[in-house]
Write a structure and sequence with these properties.
Blueprint lengths: L3 E6 L9 H7 L4 E8 L1 H6 L4 H19 L5 E5 L2 H11 L4 E5 L4 H16 L3 E5 L7 H7 L8 H10 L12 H5 L9 H5 L23 H12 L2 H6 L18 H5 L5 H15 L11 H13 L20 E2 L1 H8 L6 H13 L4 H14 L5 H11 L5 H11 L16 H6 L4 H6 L19 H6 L15 H17 L7 H4 L32 E2 L40 H25 L13
Parallel strand pairs: 1-2, 1-4, 2-3, 4-5
Antiparallel strand pairs: 6-7
Helix pairs in contact: 4-5, 14-19, 18-19
Length: about 600
């Protein structure tokens, strides 16, 4: 019997460790490698130009690798349900293979294609290689429900066998046994489209910092593994200015698109560790970021509403505000806080930001300052982040907004102090917010505090050349802590209720900035949170009372319970007061930093490998 195979690429854009592709080649007479792309979807989907460029580069690299094996990639335009009936007939297909997709949308799509293939008498073979473990097995071992704490997840994983070892790359000998004749007009019929063909404008588009494709992924992996000290000692480097820029060893986009196998990364780390530590088995913590990726996949695999509040059984129904104006300022880097604006500018320009930068902007949008729903932030990340992954993206946003997985809501990131501790010189700010480049270090993170003469000398007057802060952070974070405290007090299952009595009303912050609503830095401005329209919580899950208004909120105090000193006349503080406040801010940031050290084994939006 003649065996005509089609391997359907979706994620898993690689020739190494691709068990489904190996199945397509096994005993086949012909093999065609297909990628289905819907040009209409490209224009309608919430995916930005950087992500599309990365995907097209990955497809080009895959096609070039197949050319070396005397084969090609068939890029077919259309929807899978429309494309496959024609291809199955035209190519007389007898076998269809593809990588298992654990996400709800993918499972529904693949189920429809498998049913169609059965009607055509086509054998379908599906193999898992996008995750380390069988997610259904993890759920089964947890009484048929996904574990919703990382500790529980680790306990289950520790009882499982090691992940299957990765398979070697496809060879020339394998491909020669099932060589398929290519049409002379292959490039005309099945070529990879350009960004222009997909409707994107490319004038002024800077060169890609992240080059898509398996070849680049493997090259980065080799560089990544050269950092033997980190692997041997389980040391995570302290975050500094250099950490904030894209790294030549970063791997997260390559894992997301499957240009790099997670099993290849896992076993390379494991074997290098054992070699350096004299055959000592590595602890689970070595694979922390990979395991968080698995954790979110497991939590999402049977939850089609994982990316929204409505109908999501694991999501706390927090009554977030509807504030399109605040969301737009955040997304476009116009908040008036240089640290936040620089991060969002880097994200829009390059498609990547460090995982602690993701924490900072996510906290600022949600529970920290603006009280805007995590769903809105998730959609912005989905558009702009190269490594945005449906399960990991949604899970991280729920976590960072304290909507699921995490309950220490009383630690907020200071949009001044956190950045200053990471990059005291402000070089990161100057790179992405060049209008502020001539500000002295003292004021680079809070230009509103600079004297007028300094602002004019820097050719950047706050409120004219650069926006005033859109919110009083100290007031907004205080209000939001009270809001979140009220929400969690109504959760009967909240294990941290005993901590609520000790939750500080406010944590020590930098000097409250002047905002869009104020003319000077003296006196608190009214928070836009109090004027925003609250979103309607889901009717299918428990809801909570409205948040306290600013008029009923407790008196502003420091984290030590002491009343704050009023600002000096004119809004500016003495050097002594600034030193006192800086000390308080530093203590608060040290608390958050200690949390971050603990959370190196907790989720970040990016996947494994990027933080090193």
């Amino acid at each position: 019997m003649v065996v005509n195979s089609v391997h359907w690429f979706r994620k898993g854009l690689r020739l190494h460790d691709n068990p489904a592709l190996q199945e397509a080649l096994n005993g086949a007479d012909t093999v065609r490698c297909v990628y289905i792309l819907d040009p209409w979807f490209a224009g309608a989907a919430n995916v930005g130009i950087n992500r599309w460029r990365f995907l097209l580069e990955a497809l080009e690299d895959l096609d070039n690798s197949l050319k070396k094996l005397n084969s090609r990639l068939f890029v077919v335009r259309g929807q899978p349900t429309d494309v496959f009936p024609r291809l199955l007939k035209e190519w007389k297909v007898t076998r269809l293979t593809f990588e298992y997709d654990p996400e709800p949308y993918g499972k529904e799509r693949d189920g429809a294609i498998m049913k169609m293939a059965q009607e055509f008498g086509v054998e379908t073979i599906v193999r898992n290689s996008h995750t380390l473990y069988n997610l259904d097995r993890i759920i089964e071992m947890n009484n048929n429900s996904p574990p919703l704490t990382f500790k529980r997840f680790q306990t289950i994983v520790s009882r499982l066998e090691l992940p299957r070892r990765p398979l070697p790359p496809i060879t020339q000998q394998q491909m020669d046994k099932c060589r398929t004749k290519m049409a002379d007009n292959h490039d005309q019929l099945y070529s990879i489209p350009s960004l222009e063909e997909l409707g994107f404008r490319t004038e002024g588009l800077p060169p890609a910092i992240w080059q898509g494709g398996e070849s680049e992924a493997l090259d980065r992996l080799n560089k990544h593994l050269d950092k033997k000290v980190w692997v041997a000692n389980l040391e995570h480097p302290r975050v500094n200015t250099c950490s904030l820029y894209a790294s030549p060893t970063g791997l997260s986009p390559y894992l997301r698109f499957g240009c790099l196998s997670c099993r290849v990364l896992y076993y390379n780390l494991r074997e290098l560790y054992m070699k350096l530590r004299k055959r000592c088995s590595p602890p689970l913590s070595l694979f922390g970021q990979l395991l968080w990726r698995e954790f979110f996949y497991t939590a999402a695999t049977n939850n089609p509403n994982f990316d929204r509040m409505d109908g999501n059984p694991i999501c706390v129904q927090i009554p977030w505000d509807q504030n399109p104006e605040a969301l737009a300022k955040w997304a476009e880097g116009r908040t008036g806080f240089p640290w936040i604006d620089a991060i969002m500018t880097q994200l829009r320009q390059e498609g990547w930001i460090h995982h602690l930068a993701r924490h900072a902007v996510a906290c600022f949008l949600t529970r920290g300052d603006l009280w805007v729903s995590w769903e809105s932030g998730m959609r912005v990340f989905e558009e702009l982040l190269l490594d945005a992954d449906w399960s990991v993206n949604a899970g991280s946003w729920m976590w960072l907004s304290c909507s699921a997985f995490f309950q220490q809501f009383f630690h907020c990131y200071c949009p001044v102090g956190f950045g200053r501790r990471t990059d005291p010189s402000g070089d990161y700010i100057r790179r992405y917010i060049p209008i502020l480049k001539d500000y002295p270090n003292r004021y680079i993170y809070e230009p509103w505090n600079a004297p007028e003469s300094v602002q004019k000398a820097a050719n950047c007057v706050v409120g004219v050349n650069y926006p005033k802060p859109m919110i009083n952070h100290a007031e907004g974070s205080r209000l939001n802590i009270e809001r979140m405290k009220q929400v969690y007090q109504q959760l009967s299952h909240y294990r941290g209720l005993s901590l609520l009595a000790s939750v500080p009303t406010i944590q020590e912050e930098a000097e409250p900035p002047m905002t869009d609503e104020s003319q000077t830095s003296s006196g608190p401005a009214q928070s836009p949170l109090s004027r925003s329209k609250p979103s309607s919580p889901s009717s299918s899950c428990p809801t909570f009372a409205e948040s306290p208004s600013p008029t009923t909120a407790p008196t502003q105090t420091s984290s030590l319970g002491q009343r704050r000193k009023a600002p000096r006349e004119g809004g500016r503080k003495s050097e002594e007061e600034e030193r006192e406040e800086a000390g308080g801010e530093e203590r608060m940031e040290e608390d958050v930093e200690q949390d971050e050290e603990r959370m190196e084994e907790e989720p970040s939006e990016e996947t494994a490998g990027q933080q090193q």
